[in-house]
Amino acid sequence: MTWSSFWKYLRQHWMGLFGAFLSTLAAAYFNVQIPVSIGSITSVITTMVNAGEAITFKEYWERIKEPALRFAFVVASQAAASFATISILSHVMEGVAAKLRHDLFDAVQRQDIEFFEFHRTGELSKRINQDVQELKSDAKKLLNSGIKAVAQTAGVVQVLYGISPTLTASLGVGVSGIVLIGTVIGKMLKKHSIQANRESSACQNHSYESLSNIKTVRAFSAEDKHLESYDELGEIATLSARKLGYGIGIFQGLTNLALNGLVGGTVILGGSMVGSNQLSGGDLMAFLAAVQMLQKSLATVSQMLTVYMKMKIAGDQVFQFISLEPGRTVAEQDGKRIPHYKLIGNISFDDVDFSYATRPDDPVLKKFNLQMSSHKVIALVGASGNGKSTIASLLARMYDPSGGKITIDGVDIRNLDPKWLRSELIGYVGQEPALFTGTVADNIRYGKPDASDLEIEDAARRANCHHFISSLKDGYFTKVAERGSSLSGGQKQRIAIARAIIKNPEILIFDEATSALDNESEAVVQKAIEENFKNRMVLIIAHRLSTVKKAVQDIIHVVEGGKIVESGNHEELMRKRGVYFNLQNQQSSK
Ligand SMILES: Nc1ncnc2c1ncn2[C@@H]1O[C@H](COP(=O)(O)OP(=O)(O)OP(=O)(O)O)[C@@H](O)[C@H]1O
Fold first, then answer.
1. Residue 388 C-alpha to ligand 1 middle, in angstroms?
2. Could you tell me if 7 and 41 lie in one domain?
3. From the CA of 560, how far away is ligand 1's center (Å)?
Protein backbone atom coordinates (compact mmCIF):
# COMPACT_ATOMS: atom_id res chain seq x y z
CA MET A 1 0.00 0.00 0.00
CA THR A 2 1.33 3.39 -0.82
CA TRP A 3 1.05 5.49 2.28
CA SER A 4 0.98 8.68 0.25
CA SER A 5 -2.20 7.42 -1.47
CA PHE A 6 -3.88 6.63 1.84
CA TRP A 7 -2.68 9.86 3.36
CA LYS A 8 -4.47 11.77 0.57
CA TYR A 9 -7.74 10.42 1.94
CA LEU A 10 -6.88 10.87 5.62
CA ARG A 11 -5.60 14.42 5.03
CA GLN A 12 -9.08 15.60 4.08
CA HIS A 13 -10.17 14.85 7.65
CA TRP A 14 -7.05 16.17 9.38
CA MET A 15 -9.00 18.14 11.98
CA GLY A 16 -11.01 15.12 13.01
CA LEU A 17 -7.90 12.97 13.05
CA PHE A 18 -6.04 15.50 15.15
CA GLY A 19 -8.98 15.61 17.57
CA ALA A 20 -9.00 11.80 17.73
CA PHE A 21 -5.23 11.83 18.29
CA LEU A 22 -5.55 14.26 21.22
CA SER A 23 -8.43 12.34 22.79
CA THR A 24 -6.46 9.08 22.37
CA LEU A 25 -3.53 10.64 24.20
CA ALA A 26 -5.91 11.88 26.87
CA ALA A 27 -7.46 8.40 27.20
CA ALA A 28 -3.94 6.91 27.50
CA TYR A 29 -3.03 9.48 30.16
CA PHE A 30 -6.16 8.83 32.21
CA ASN A 31 -5.64 5.09 31.79
CA VAL A 32 -2.27 5.43 33.50
CA GLN A 33 -3.88 7.59 36.19
CA ILE A 34 -6.56 5.05 37.12
CA PRO A 35 -4.23 2.65 39.06
CA VAL A 36 -2.48 5.66 40.57
CA SER A 37 -5.71 7.08 41.99
CA ILE A 38 -6.87 3.64 43.17
CA GLY A 39 -3.48 3.45 44.93
CA SER A 40 -4.23 6.73 46.77
CA ILE A 41 -7.59 5.42 48.02
CA THR A 42 -6.01 2.11 49.05
CA SER A 43 -3.29 3.84 51.07
CA VAL A 44 -5.92 5.87 53.01
CA ILE A 45 -7.81 2.63 53.72
CA THR A 46 -4.56 0.87 54.78
CA THR A 47 -3.72 3.70 57.22
CA MET A 48 -7.26 3.47 58.59
CA VAL A 49 -7.04 -0.31 59.07
CA ASN A 50 -3.64 0.00 60.74
CA ALA A 51 -5.05 2.60 63.21
CA GLY A 52 -7.68 0.00 64.17
CA GLU A 53 -10.31 2.62 65.26
CA ALA A 54 -14.03 2.31 64.49
CA ILE A 55 -15.32 5.29 62.49
CA THR A 56 -18.68 6.42 61.09
CA PHE A 57 -19.34 6.55 57.36
CA LYS A 58 -19.23 10.38 57.50
CA GLU A 59 -15.73 10.28 59.03
CA TYR A 60 -14.69 7.61 56.52
CA TRP A 61 -15.95 9.73 53.61
CA GLU A 62 -14.13 12.79 54.96
CA ARG A 63 -10.86 10.82 54.82
CA ILE A 64 -11.22 9.30 51.35
CA LYS A 65 -13.18 12.19 49.82
CA GLU A 66 -10.21 13.78 48.06
CA PRO A 67 -8.69 10.64 46.41
CA ALA A 68 -12.20 9.30 45.69
CA LEU A 69 -13.19 12.50 43.87
CA ARG A 70 -9.88 12.42 41.98
CA PHE A 71 -10.64 8.80 41.04
CA ALA A 72 -14.14 9.77 39.87
CA PHE A 73 -12.69 12.60 37.79
CA VAL A 74 -10.04 10.33 36.23
CA VAL A 75 -12.56 7.59 35.44
CA ALA A 76 -15.10 10.02 34.00
CA SER A 77 -12.40 11.75 31.92
CA GLN A 78 -11.13 8.39 30.66
CA ALA A 79 -14.67 7.42 29.64
CA ALA A 80 -15.25 10.79 27.95
CA ALA A 81 -11.91 10.58 26.11
CA SER A 82 -12.67 7.01 24.96
CA PHE A 83 -16.12 8.07 23.77
CA ALA A 84 -14.63 11.05 21.91
CA THR A 85 -11.90 8.93 20.29
CA ILE A 86 -14.25 6.20 19.10
CA SER A 87 -16.95 8.61 17.88
CA ILE A 88 -14.53 10.90 16.03
CA LEU A 89 -12.62 7.97 14.53
CA SER A 90 -15.84 6.29 13.38
CA HIS A 91 -17.07 9.51 11.83
CA VAL A 92 -13.77 10.15 10.07
CA MET A 93 -13.10 6.60 8.93
CA GLU A 94 -16.64 6.03 7.64
CA GLY A 95 -16.12 9.16 5.52
CA VAL A 96 -12.74 7.88 4.31
CA ALA A 97 -14.23 4.46 3.48
CA ALA A 98 -17.15 6.00 1.58
CA LYS A 99 -14.76 8.10 -0.52
CA LEU A 100 -12.48 5.09 -1.11
CA ARG A 101 -15.43 2.97 -2.26
CA HIS A 102 -16.58 5.77 -4.54
CA ASP A 103 -13.15 6.27 -6.09
CA LEU A 104 -12.47 2.56 -6.45
CA PHE A 105 -15.86 1.89 -8.06
CA ASP A 106 -15.31 4.86 -10.36
CA ALA A 107 -11.77 3.75 -11.30
CA VAL A 108 -12.89 0.17 -11.99
CA GLN A 109 -15.94 1.25 -13.97
CA ARG A 110 -13.76 3.45 -16.17
CA GLN A 111 -11.47 0.67 -17.31
CA ASP A 112 -11.57 -0.69 -20.82
CA ILE A 113 -13.74 -3.76 -21.40
CA GLU A 114 -10.52 -5.82 -21.70
CA PHE A 115 -9.83 -5.14 -18.02
CA PHE A 116 -13.03 -7.00 -17.11
CA GLU A 117 -11.93 -9.98 -19.15
CA PHE A 118 -8.86 -10.30 -16.92
CA HIS A 119 -10.53 -9.56 -13.58
CA ARG A 120 -13.56 -11.46 -12.41
CA THR A 121 -16.61 -9.67 -11.05
CA GLY A 122 -16.34 -11.46 -7.69
CA GLU A 123 -12.75 -10.27 -7.26
CA LEU A 124 -13.64 -6.67 -8.13
CA SER A 125 -16.64 -6.67 -5.86
CA LYS A 126 -14.48 -8.02 -2.99
CA ARG A 127 -12.00 -5.21 -3.46
CA ILE A 128 -14.67 -2.52 -3.51
CA ASN A 129 -16.56 -3.80 -0.50
CA GLN A 130 -14.65 -6.23 1.70
CA ASP A 131 -11.13 -4.86 1.28
CA VAL A 132 -12.22 -1.25 1.82
CA GLN A 133 -14.13 -2.40 4.91
CA GLU A 134 -11.05 -4.21 6.23
CA LEU A 135 -8.76 -1.27 5.49
CA LYS A 136 -11.16 1.01 7.36
CA SER A 137 -11.57 -1.11 10.48
CA ASP A 138 -7.85 -1.96 10.71
CA ALA A 139 -6.91 1.70 10.31
CA LYS A 140 -9.41 2.55 13.06
CA LYS A 141 -7.87 -0.04 15.39
CA LEU A 142 -4.39 1.23 14.64
CA LEU A 143 -5.32 4.84 15.18
CA ASN A 144 -7.09 4.06 18.43
CA SER A 145 -5.34 1.19 20.23
CA GLY A 146 -2.04 1.66 18.37
CA ILE A 147 -1.59 5.32 19.32
CA LYS A 148 -2.79 4.63 22.86
CA ALA A 149 -0.31 1.77 23.27
CA VAL A 150 2.58 3.79 21.82
CA ALA A 151 1.72 6.79 24.04
CA GLN A 152 1.44 4.57 27.10
CA THR A 153 4.76 2.91 26.21
CA ALA A 154 6.45 6.32 25.92
CA GLY A 155 4.95 7.45 29.25
CA VAL A 156 6.07 4.29 31.04
CA VAL A 157 9.58 4.45 29.54
CA GLN A 158 9.88 7.97 30.94
CA VAL A 159 8.85 6.72 34.40
CA LEU A 160 11.32 3.80 34.11
CA TYR A 161 14.16 6.08 33.10
CA GLY A 162 13.39 8.29 36.10
CA ILE A 163 13.78 5.27 38.42
CA SER A 164 16.88 3.65 36.91
CA PRO A 165 18.60 4.66 33.64
CA THR A 166 20.84 1.56 33.78
CA LEU A 167 17.98 -0.92 34.11
CA THR A 168 16.02 0.98 31.45
CA ALA A 169 18.97 0.78 29.03
CA SER A 170 19.29 -3.00 29.49
CA LEU A 171 15.54 -3.30 29.04
CA GLY A 172 15.92 -1.25 25.83
CA VAL A 173 18.48 -3.73 24.45
CA GLY A 174 16.10 -6.63 25.18
CA VAL A 175 13.12 -4.88 23.58
CA SER A 176 15.16 -3.99 20.45
CA GLY A 177 16.10 -7.66 20.04
CA ILE A 178 12.42 -8.65 20.32
CA VAL A 179 11.38 -6.01 17.77
CA LEU A 180 14.06 -7.24 15.34
CA ILE A 181 12.97 -10.85 15.56
CA GLY A 182 9.34 -9.72 15.41
CA THR A 183 10.04 -7.88 12.14
CA VAL A 184 11.50 -11.01 10.54
CA ILE A 185 8.55 -13.16 11.66
CA GLY A 186 6.20 -10.38 10.53
CA LYS A 187 7.62 -10.50 7.00
CA MET A 188 7.03 -14.24 6.84
CA LEU A 189 3.50 -13.78 8.12
CA LYS A 190 2.82 -11.20 5.43
CA LYS A 191 3.59 -13.77 2.73
CA HIS A 192 1.16 -16.23 4.33
CA SER A 193 -1.41 -13.53 4.72
CA ILE A 194 -1.26 -12.59 1.00
CA GLN A 195 -1.65 -16.24 0.06
CA ALA A 196 -4.58 -16.74 2.44
CA ASN A 197 -6.24 -13.65 0.98
CA ARG A 198 -5.77 -14.91 -2.60
CA GLU A 199 -7.22 -18.30 -1.73
CA SER A 200 -10.21 -16.84 0.07
CA SER A 201 -10.85 -14.69 -3.05
CA ALA A 202 -10.84 -17.82 -5.23
CA CYS A 203 -13.43 -19.34 -2.92
CA GLN A 204 -15.54 -16.20 -3.05
CA ASN A 205 -15.34 -16.05 -6.85
CA HIS A 206 -16.49 -19.63 -7.09
CA SER A 207 -19.58 -19.08 -4.94
CA TYR A 208 -20.33 -15.84 -6.78
CA GLU A 209 -20.17 -17.56 -10.16
CA SER A 210 -22.29 -20.51 -9.04
CA LEU A 211 -24.98 -18.39 -7.44
CA SER A 212 -25.17 -15.92 -10.31
CA ASN A 213 -25.70 -18.85 -12.68
CA ILE A 214 -27.98 -20.78 -10.34
CA LYS A 215 -30.51 -21.64 -13.05
CA THR A 216 -27.87 -23.39 -15.15
CA VAL A 217 -26.54 -25.16 -12.08
CA ARG A 218 -30.06 -26.33 -11.20
CA ALA A 219 -30.81 -27.34 -14.80
CA PHE A 220 -27.79 -29.66 -14.76
CA SER A 221 -28.49 -30.74 -11.20
CA ALA A 222 -24.89 -29.75 -10.58
CA GLU A 223 -25.27 -28.45 -7.01
CA ASP A 224 -23.18 -31.32 -5.59
CA LYS A 225 -20.44 -30.79 -8.18
CA HIS A 226 -20.30 -27.08 -7.38
CA LEU A 227 -20.30 -27.80 -3.66
CA GLU A 228 -17.46 -30.26 -4.19
CA SER A 229 -15.28 -27.79 -6.05
CA TYR A 230 -16.25 -25.08 -3.54
CA ASP A 231 -15.14 -27.41 -0.74
CA GLU A 232 -11.87 -28.14 -2.56
CA LEU A 233 -11.13 -24.42 -2.83
CA GLY A 234 -12.43 -23.94 0.71
CA GLU A 235 -10.07 -26.61 2.00
CA ILE A 236 -7.08 -24.89 0.40
CA ALA A 237 -8.23 -21.53 1.79
CA THR A 238 -8.85 -23.02 5.24
CA LEU A 239 -5.40 -24.62 5.24
CA SER A 240 -3.79 -21.30 4.35
CA ALA A 241 -5.86 -19.42 6.92
CA ARG A 242 -4.94 -22.00 9.55
CA LYS A 243 -1.25 -21.75 8.67
CA LEU A 244 -1.59 -18.00 9.04
CA GLY A 245 -3.36 -18.52 12.37
CA TYR A 246 -0.56 -20.79 13.61
CA GLY A 247 1.97 -18.20 12.44
CA ILE A 248 0.16 -15.44 14.30
CA GLY A 249 -0.09 -17.74 17.34
CA ILE A 250 3.67 -18.42 17.25
CA PHE A 251 4.31 -14.72 16.84
CA GLN A 252 2.08 -13.79 19.79
CA GLY A 253 3.40 -16.68 21.91
CA LEU A 254 7.01 -15.71 21.28
CA THR A 255 6.17 -12.09 22.01
CA ASN A 256 4.61 -13.04 25.35
CA LEU A 257 7.54 -15.32 26.15
CA ALA A 258 10.01 -12.57 25.36
CA LEU A 259 8.05 -9.96 27.33
CA ASN A 260 7.73 -12.19 30.38
CA GLY A 261 11.42 -13.02 29.99
CA LEU A 262 12.07 -9.29 30.16
CA VAL A 263 10.24 -9.07 33.52
CA GLY A 264 12.22 -12.05 34.82
CA GLY A 265 15.49 -10.60 33.52
CA THR A 266 14.67 -7.25 35.13
CA VAL A 267 14.02 -8.92 38.53
CA ILE A 268 17.34 -10.77 38.39
CA LEU A 269 19.37 -7.81 37.12
CA GLY A 270 17.52 -5.39 39.43
CA GLY A 271 18.06 -7.75 42.38
CA SER A 272 21.81 -7.71 41.80
CA MET A 273 21.70 -3.89 41.64
CA VAL A 274 19.80 -3.86 44.97
CA GLY A 275 22.51 -6.19 46.33
CA SER A 276 25.26 -3.80 45.29
CA ASN A 277 23.30 -0.81 46.68
CA GLN A 278 22.84 0.77 43.26
CA LEU A 279 19.04 0.59 43.65
CA SER A 280 16.67 0.57 46.63
CA GLY A 281 14.17 -2.29 47.14
CA GLY A 282 11.26 0.17 46.81
CA ASP A 283 12.60 1.46 43.48
CA LEU A 284 12.92 -2.08 42.18
CA MET A 285 9.25 -2.74 43.11
CA ALA A 286 8.16 0.47 41.40
CA PHE A 287 10.29 -0.41 38.36
CA LEU A 288 8.72 -3.87 38.15
CA ALA A 289 5.19 -2.44 38.39
CA ALA A 290 6.01 -0.07 35.56
CA VAL A 291 7.58 -2.88 33.49
CA GLN A 292 4.32 -4.82 33.78
CA MET A 293 2.47 -1.88 32.38
CA LEU A 294 5.09 -1.63 29.62
CA GLN A 295 4.60 -5.32 28.93
CA LYS A 296 0.86 -4.80 28.43
CA SER A 297 1.43 -1.84 26.12
CA LEU A 298 4.06 -3.71 24.11
CA ALA A 299 1.71 -6.70 23.79
CA THR A 300 -0.87 -4.33 22.31
CA VAL A 301 1.81 -2.88 20.01
CA SER A 302 2.62 -6.41 18.79
CA GLN A 303 -1.08 -7.10 18.15
CA MET A 304 -1.19 -3.84 16.28
CA LEU A 305 1.68 -5.04 14.08
CA THR A 306 -0.52 -7.94 12.98
CA VAL A 307 -3.39 -5.51 12.35
CA TYR A 308 -0.98 -3.32 10.40
CA MET A 309 0.02 -6.22 8.16
CA LYS A 310 -3.61 -7.08 7.44
CA MET A 311 -4.34 -3.44 6.75
CA LYS A 312 -1.42 -3.17 4.35
CA ILE A 313 -2.62 -6.17 2.37
CA ALA A 314 -6.17 -4.82 2.14
CA GLY A 315 -4.68 -1.43 1.21
CA ASP A 316 -2.62 -3.01 -1.59
CA GLN A 317 -5.82 -4.47 -3.05
CA VAL A 318 -7.65 -1.15 -2.82
CA PHE A 319 -4.94 1.20 -4.03
CA GLN A 320 -3.75 -1.01 -6.89
CA PHE A 321 -6.95 -0.21 -8.78
CA ILE A 322 -7.76 3.24 -7.39
CA SER A 323 -4.63 4.62 -8.99
CA LEU A 324 -5.29 2.98 -12.37
CA GLU A 325 -5.65 5.46 -15.18
CA PRO A 326 -9.03 5.33 -16.90
CA GLY A 327 -9.12 2.97 -19.85
CA ARG A 328 -8.18 4.36 -23.24
CA THR A 329 -11.66 4.33 -24.74
CA VAL A 330 -13.22 5.96 -21.71
CA ALA A 331 -10.57 8.54 -20.99
CA GLU A 332 -10.78 10.38 -24.29
CA GLN A 333 -13.82 12.44 -23.39
CA ASP A 334 -12.60 15.47 -25.29
CA GLY A 335 -12.85 13.83 -28.72
CA LYS A 336 -14.86 15.27 -31.59
CA ARG A 337 -18.63 15.26 -31.90
CA ILE A 338 -20.08 15.44 -35.41
CA PRO A 339 -22.76 18.16 -35.35
CA HIS A 340 -26.23 16.80 -36.01
CA TYR A 341 -26.71 18.81 -39.21
CA LYS A 342 -23.49 17.37 -40.67
CA LEU A 343 -24.06 13.79 -39.60
CA ILE A 344 -24.81 11.34 -42.40
CA GLY A 345 -23.82 8.09 -40.68
CA ASN A 346 -21.74 6.29 -43.32
CA ILE A 347 -19.57 3.65 -41.68
CA SER A 348 -16.39 2.18 -43.03
CA PHE A 349 -14.12 -0.59 -41.68
CA ASP A 350 -10.76 -0.23 -43.46
CA ASP A 351 -8.24 -3.08 -43.15
CA VAL A 352 -9.24 -3.68 -39.56
CA ASP A 353 -7.22 -6.19 -37.53
CA PHE A 354 -8.42 -7.32 -34.16
CA SER A 355 -7.79 -10.00 -31.57
CA TYR A 356 -9.06 -10.17 -27.98
CA ALA A 357 -6.51 -9.39 -25.27
CA THR A 358 -7.18 -12.74 -23.60
CA ARG A 359 -6.34 -14.52 -26.88
CA PRO A 360 -3.78 -12.28 -28.56
CA ASP A 361 -2.52 -14.99 -30.93
CA ASP A 362 -5.96 -15.79 -32.25
CA PRO A 363 -7.01 -12.92 -34.55
CA VAL A 364 -10.77 -12.57 -35.07
CA LEU A 365 -10.51 -9.99 -37.87
CA LYS A 366 -7.64 -9.71 -40.36
CA LYS A 367 -7.63 -6.81 -42.86
CA PHE A 368 -11.40 -6.64 -42.53
CA ASN A 369 -13.19 -4.25 -44.89
CA LEU A 370 -16.84 -3.24 -44.87
CA GLN A 371 -18.69 -0.15 -46.02
CA MET A 372 -22.15 0.53 -44.64
CA SER A 373 -24.23 3.40 -45.97
CA SER A 374 -26.54 5.32 -43.71
CA HIS A 375 -30.32 5.22 -43.98
CA LYS A 376 -30.17 1.50 -44.58
CA VAL A 377 -31.15 -1.65 -42.79
CA ILE A 378 -28.10 -3.87 -42.97
CA ALA A 379 -27.82 -7.45 -41.83
CA LEU A 380 -24.67 -9.35 -40.85
CA VAL A 381 -25.25 -13.08 -40.96
CA GLY A 382 -23.06 -16.12 -40.63
CA ALA A 383 -22.42 -19.14 -38.50
CA SER A 384 -21.67 -18.74 -34.81
CA GLY A 385 -18.19 -17.60 -33.79
CA ASN A 386 -17.32 -15.97 -37.12
CA GLY A 387 -16.89 -12.44 -35.76
CA LYS A 388 -20.28 -10.70 -36.19
CA SER A 389 -20.57 -9.51 -32.60
CA THR A 390 -16.95 -8.47 -32.63
CA ILE A 391 -17.68 -6.15 -35.57
CA ALA A 392 -20.55 -4.58 -33.59
CA SER A 393 -18.40 -4.23 -30.44
CA LEU A 394 -15.67 -2.49 -32.42
CA LEU A 395 -18.23 -0.09 -33.91
CA ALA A 396 -19.58 0.74 -30.43
CA ARG A 397 -15.94 1.22 -29.42
CA MET A 398 -15.95 -1.39 -26.70
CA TYR A 399 -12.51 -2.26 -28.08
CA ASP A 400 -10.08 -0.59 -30.45
CA PRO A 401 -8.68 -2.39 -33.49
CA SER A 402 -4.99 -3.26 -33.43
CA GLY A 403 -4.66 -2.31 -37.11
CA GLY A 404 -6.63 -0.32 -39.68
CA LYS A 405 -9.44 2.05 -38.76
CA ILE A 406 -13.18 2.41 -38.44
CA THR A 407 -14.66 5.69 -39.61
CA ILE A 408 -18.04 7.37 -39.36
CA ASP A 409 -18.49 9.97 -42.11
CA GLY A 410 -14.74 9.77 -42.69
CA VAL A 411 -13.80 10.49 -39.04
CA ASP A 412 -11.79 7.78 -37.27
CA ILE A 413 -13.97 6.73 -34.31
CA ARG A 414 -10.87 6.92 -32.09
CA ASN A 415 -11.05 10.68 -32.61
CA LEU A 416 -14.70 10.87 -31.61
CA ASP A 417 -15.86 11.52 -28.06
CA PRO A 418 -16.61 7.95 -26.89
CA LYS A 419 -19.27 9.12 -24.46
CA TRP A 420 -21.17 10.87 -27.25
CA LEU A 421 -20.61 7.91 -29.58
CA ARG A 422 -22.21 5.49 -27.13
CA SER A 423 -24.83 7.65 -25.50
CA GLU A 424 -26.16 9.50 -28.55
CA LEU A 425 -24.84 8.15 -31.82
CA ILE A 426 -25.09 4.40 -31.35
CA GLY A 427 -27.76 2.31 -29.67
CA TYR A 428 -26.84 -1.29 -28.92
CA VAL A 429 -29.12 -4.14 -27.95
CA GLY A 430 -27.35 -7.37 -27.17
CA GLN A 431 -28.41 -10.98 -26.98
CA GLU A 432 -28.51 -11.12 -23.22
CA PRO A 433 -30.07 -7.84 -22.16
CA ALA A 434 -29.05 -6.71 -18.70
CA LEU A 435 -31.84 -5.27 -16.61
CA PHE A 436 -31.10 -3.37 -13.43
CA THR A 437 -32.75 -3.32 -10.04
CA GLY A 438 -35.70 -0.92 -10.20
CA THR A 439 -39.05 -0.80 -11.95
CA VAL A 440 -39.81 -1.69 -15.56
CA ALA A 441 -40.19 2.05 -16.25
CA ASP A 442 -36.78 2.76 -14.69
CA ASN A 443 -35.22 0.19 -16.99
CA ILE A 444 -36.72 1.78 -20.11
CA ARG A 445 -35.86 5.27 -18.87
CA TYR A 446 -32.22 4.12 -18.61
CA GLY A 447 -31.99 4.96 -22.33
CA LYS A 448 -33.21 8.54 -21.78
CA PRO A 449 -33.06 9.66 -18.15
CA ASP A 450 -35.41 12.63 -18.67
CA ALA A 451 -38.07 10.67 -20.59
CA SER A 452 -41.69 11.33 -19.62
CA ASP A 453 -44.11 8.51 -18.74
CA LEU A 454 -45.76 8.99 -22.11
CA GLU A 455 -42.45 8.56 -23.96
CA ILE A 456 -41.80 5.39 -21.98
CA GLU A 457 -45.17 3.97 -22.91
CA ASP A 458 -44.65 4.94 -26.55
CA ALA A 459 -41.25 3.18 -26.68
CA ALA A 460 -42.75 0.13 -25.02
CA ARG A 461 -45.55 0.01 -27.60
CA ARG A 462 -43.02 0.11 -30.42
CA ALA A 463 -40.98 -2.65 -28.82
CA ASN A 464 -44.18 -4.68 -28.55
CA CYS A 465 -44.00 -4.90 -24.79
CA HIS A 466 -46.70 -2.45 -23.66
CA HIS A 467 -49.27 -5.20 -23.62
CA PHE A 468 -47.37 -7.55 -21.33
CA ILE A 469 -46.19 -4.71 -19.07
CA SER A 470 -49.80 -3.52 -18.63
CA SER A 471 -50.85 -7.02 -17.67
CA LEU A 472 -48.36 -7.05 -14.76
CA LYS A 473 -49.94 -6.28 -11.38
CA ASP A 474 -48.09 -2.98 -10.96
CA GLY A 475 -47.71 -2.26 -14.67
CA TYR A 476 -44.73 -0.01 -15.42
CA PHE A 477 -44.03 0.21 -11.68
CA THR A 478 -43.43 -3.53 -11.36
CA LYS A 479 -40.13 -4.16 -9.64
CA VAL A 480 -37.64 -6.08 -11.74
CA ALA A 481 -35.93 -8.79 -9.69
CA GLU A 482 -32.15 -9.16 -9.68
CA ARG A 483 -30.84 -9.09 -13.27
CA GLY A 484 -34.41 -9.36 -14.55
CA SER A 485 -34.83 -12.91 -13.27
CA SER A 486 -38.58 -12.40 -12.79
CA LEU A 487 -39.12 -11.87 -16.54
CA SER A 488 -38.93 -14.21 -19.51
CA GLY A 489 -36.02 -13.96 -21.97
CA GLY A 490 -38.31 -12.47 -24.64
CA GLN A 491 -39.82 -9.96 -22.19
CA LYS A 492 -36.35 -8.85 -21.14
CA GLN A 493 -35.30 -8.46 -24.77
CA ARG A 494 -38.35 -6.32 -25.54
CA ILE A 495 -37.69 -4.06 -22.55
CA ALA A 496 -34.09 -3.71 -23.73
CA ILE A 497 -35.34 -2.84 -27.22
CA ALA A 498 -37.69 -0.20 -25.76
CA ARG A 499 -34.69 1.19 -23.87
CA ALA A 500 -32.74 1.53 -27.13
CA ILE A 501 -35.73 2.98 -29.03
CA ILE A 502 -36.30 5.70 -26.43
CA LYS A 503 -32.65 6.73 -26.80
CA ASN A 504 -33.37 7.44 -30.47
CA PRO A 505 -29.83 6.88 -31.78
CA GLU A 506 -28.62 7.50 -35.33
CA ILE A 507 -27.23 3.99 -35.62
CA LEU A 508 -29.04 1.10 -33.99
CA ILE A 509 -27.24 -2.23 -33.56
CA PHE A 510 -29.33 -5.32 -32.90
CA ASP A 511 -26.95 -8.10 -31.93
CA GLU A 512 -29.21 -11.18 -31.87
CA ALA A 513 -31.55 -8.86 -30.00
CA THR A 514 -34.72 -10.69 -30.97
CA SER A 515 -33.37 -14.21 -30.63
CA ALA A 516 -35.62 -15.01 -27.65
CA LEU A 517 -38.81 -13.72 -29.26
CA ASP A 518 -41.41 -15.89 -30.93
CA ASN A 519 -41.84 -15.41 -34.68
CA GLU A 520 -44.89 -13.21 -34.38
CA SER A 521 -43.38 -10.92 -31.77
CA GLU A 522 -40.11 -10.71 -33.69
CA ALA A 523 -41.96 -9.62 -36.81
CA VAL A 524 -43.87 -6.90 -34.92
CA VAL A 525 -40.69 -5.55 -33.33
CA GLN A 526 -38.76 -5.58 -36.60
CA LYS A 527 -41.53 -3.80 -38.45
CA ALA A 528 -41.66 -1.11 -35.76
CA ILE A 529 -37.90 -0.68 -35.90
CA GLU A 530 -37.84 -0.39 -39.65
CA GLU A 531 -40.62 2.21 -39.59
CA ASN A 532 -39.08 4.24 -36.80
CA PHE A 533 -35.53 4.11 -38.01
CA LYS A 534 -36.26 4.76 -41.67
CA ASN A 535 -33.79 7.57 -41.94
CA ARG A 536 -31.06 6.01 -39.83
CA MET A 537 -28.95 2.92 -39.98
CA VAL A 538 -30.09 -0.32 -38.41
CA LEU A 539 -27.50 -3.07 -38.21
CA ILE A 540 -29.06 -6.44 -37.55
CA ILE A 541 -26.76 -9.28 -36.49
CA ALA A 542 -28.24 -12.73 -36.63
CA HIS A 543 -27.32 -16.25 -37.23
CA ARG A 544 -30.97 -17.28 -37.43
CA LEU A 545 -31.72 -16.44 -41.04
CA SER A 546 -35.48 -16.27 -40.42
CA THR A 547 -34.75 -13.10 -38.42
CA VAL A 548 -33.10 -11.54 -41.42
CA LYS A 549 -35.73 -12.66 -43.87
CA LYS A 550 -38.42 -10.91 -41.84
CA ALA A 551 -36.50 -7.65 -41.84
CA VAL A 552 -36.86 -5.53 -44.93
CA GLN A 553 -33.12 -5.11 -45.08
CA ASP A 554 -31.37 -3.33 -47.89
CA ILE A 555 -28.31 -5.52 -47.88
CA ILE A 556 -27.13 -8.71 -46.24
CA HIS A 557 -23.41 -9.30 -45.61
CA VAL A 558 -22.32 -12.85 -44.94
CA VAL A 559 -19.46 -13.13 -42.45
CA GLU A 560 -17.19 -16.14 -42.44
CA GLY A 561 -13.83 -16.49 -40.72
CA GLY A 562 -13.77 -12.76 -39.89
CA LYS A 563 -14.34 -11.70 -43.52
CA ILE A 564 -17.32 -10.62 -45.64
CA VAL A 565 -17.63 -13.43 -48.13
CA GLU A 566 -20.92 -12.52 -49.82
CA SER A 567 -23.18 -9.47 -50.03
CA GLY A 568 -26.57 -8.84 -51.57
CA ASN A 569 -30.27 -9.18 -50.83
CA HIS A 570 -31.90 -12.50 -50.00
CA GLU A 571 -32.80 -13.38 -53.59
CA GLU A 572 -29.38 -12.44 -54.97
CA LEU A 573 -27.59 -14.44 -52.30
CA MET A 574 -29.80 -17.47 -52.85
CA ARG A 575 -29.05 -17.29 -56.55
CA LYS A 576 -25.31 -17.35 -55.81
CA ARG A 577 -25.74 -20.78 -54.21
CA GLY A 578 -22.79 -20.04 -51.92
CA VAL A 579 -22.34 -19.70 -48.12
CA TYR A 580 -25.70 -17.98 -47.56
CA PHE A 581 -27.51 -20.58 -49.66
CA ASN A 582 -25.91 -23.38 -47.65
CA LEU A 583 -26.73 -21.70 -44.34
CA GLN A 584 -30.30 -21.26 -45.47
CA ASN A 585 -30.58 -24.93 -46.45
CA GLN A 586 -28.96 -26.09 -43.20
CA GLN A 587 -31.37 -24.05 -41.11
CA SER A 588 -34.50 -24.91 -43.05
CA SER A 589 -33.68 -28.62 -42.87
CA LYS A 590 -33.57 -28.46 -39.02
N1 LIG B 1 -14.38 -11.55 -24.99
C2 LIG B 1 -13.75 -12.43 -25.76
N3 LIG B 1 -12.51 -12.84 -25.46
C4 LIG B 1 -11.86 -13.73 -26.25
N5 LIG B 1 -12.37 -14.24 -27.39
C6 LIG B 1 -13.60 -13.87 -27.74
C7 LIG B 1 -14.37 -12.94 -26.94
N8 LIG B 1 -15.56 -12.76 -27.55
C9 LIG B 1 -15.55 -13.51 -28.66
N10 LIG B 1 -14.38 -14.17 -28.77
C11 LIG B 1 -13.97 -15.06 -29.88
O12 LIG B 1 -13.99 -14.30 -31.07
C13 LIG B 1 -14.51 -15.06 -32.15
C14 LIG B 1 -15.69 -14.30 -32.78
O15 LIG B 1 -16.72 -14.20 -31.83
P16 LIG B 1 -18.04 -13.36 -32.09
O17 LIG B 1 -18.82 -13.34 -30.82
O18 LIG B 1 -17.69 -12.08 -32.71
O19 LIG B 1 -18.77 -14.29 -33.16
P20 LIG B 1 -20.26 -14.23 -33.69
O21 LIG B 1 -20.18 -14.48 -35.14
O22 LIG B 1 -20.94 -13.00 -33.26
O23 LIG B 1 -20.89 -15.49 -32.95
P24 LIG B 1 -22.38 -15.68 -32.38
O25 LIG B 1 -23.30 -15.73 -33.57
O26 LIG B 1 -22.30 -17.00 -31.70
O27 LIG B 1 -22.67 -14.56 -31.45
C28 LIG B 1 -14.90 -16.41 -31.57
O29 LIG B 1 -13.88 -17.31 -31.87
C30 LIG B 1 -14.96 -16.17 -30.09
O31 LIG B 1 -14.56 -17.33 -29.40
1. 8
2. yes
3. 12
